[in-house]
Protein 1
Amino acid sequence: MGVKAVYPGSFDPVTNGHLDLMQRASVLFDEVVVAVLKNPGKNGAFPLSQRVSLLQEATRGLPRVRVDSFAGLLVDYASQVGARVIVRGLRAVSDFEYEFQMALMNRRLSAEIETVYLMPAEQYTYLSSGLVKEVASLGGCVDGLVPACVARALREFRGKEEKS
Ligand code: ADP
């Protein structure tokens, strides 16, 4: 039986930093379930269905990656899909404190599930979905930072924002 991992996040929208991590995770694990969090209290810039479809398009070349969405406790979702590992990314020390808290809380909630941290390639260490959205909304170029489908979606998003 292979080892399955869950890579949870908002992916609002997916960036090349996320994809770099998925590539690294698919070398280590037999299946990587990229799980978009349905957060009723927080409306993303992109609706959940679009975040999922952008992820599906962007991960077409990664056969071990499957895209899904989930609500509720991450550890419950992980056991539901049979994953023993949670994958998260560490870009800089600033990610550490929050990630450390989450990892220890998840361990308390479910001792069998281990959180594994991966570091992206250096050129993605300053990259976040939030910064990409901000740059794109001001008309800056995000080529090379996001997959082509996301660059297109960001242009459409900007067009809509300008009209409203
Ligand atoms: P969340 O809202 O859960 O932080 P994100 O979609 O922003 O969701 O990120 C999901 C995971 O991917 C987090 O572990 C985050 O640290 C990681 N991540 C985000 N951007 C990058 C990047 N550029 N390189 C590596 N990891 C990243």
Protein 2
Amino acid sequence: MSELPHYEMDEGWRVFDPDPSAPVFRPPAGAVDAHCHVFGPGNIFPYAAERKYTPCDAPKEKLMALRDFLGFERNVIVQASCHGKDNRALVDALQYADGLARGIATVGTGISDAELTDLNAAGVRGVRFNFVKRLADASPRAAMAEIAARIKPLGWHCVIYFEAADLPDLYDFVSELPTVVVVDHIGRPDVTLGADGEEFNLFVRLMHENQNVWSKVSCPDRLSLSGPPEYSDVVPFARRIVEAFPDRVLWGTDWPHPNLKTHTPDDGSLVDFIPQIARTAELQQQLLIDNPRNLYWPEEFT
Ligand code: 0GY
């Protein structure tokens, strides 16, 4: 019999907070956490050989318990780079969630139509293209364009992860994608450059010029220099996007917060960030319910 794989998480890896605070803000009933991950467990769902980090295990049961504790109803689980193109842990979590989660997978051009159909049946609704160099080796853009064309007939969309400094180079590629495009973490701005600075203005322009581009207003913990619990330096960035594009924004915890070196986020504080950036009940309803349901559970609206 072959031995079960065993992994040591990276030195200095920060395990997610096992005991987050209860948020003061209560999400409206039916709210969706639209960006989170599952990791492993590695002895059942091995981490990818080409991974850039080895995390702690962050299994589906813990994610669903957090969902309930924070007052959410549903999740969108995003394939993390440590699992490469092996979407088995993701599919397993989707099946466990029994309709209350959708998924974003990572696939290569070699994927068959039958495999795409199976992923769709499991609840996958999109693919992720990762341009963050510390996380993934560069894939040819032609391959990504080919994948985007393949998934479009399924009604799927593309989730794209990049850092703002790379947007000038990616602008045309993103603009030409044929599906809805969801950008992770407000396009990862450098917050020292200002929410009305040239760098962030380009991201706003991308959304103005392309009605199919959406943004996750997530991860203040990754972007902030002022830090928790308020992450106040990120507020103007997220608020600008929520108020300019209220029907094209999503929010997520990013649990279990891979690769954060500065601190372990308190998920309750992250939920309390929501009313800072979506200041009315109407904006909160769009951010947490209407937008994610339109994108991930559209059949419930027909
Ligand atoms: C995130 C952010 C990160 C990691 C990944 O796929 C991933 O490994 O997305 C990161 O390190 O910035 O979206 O959770």
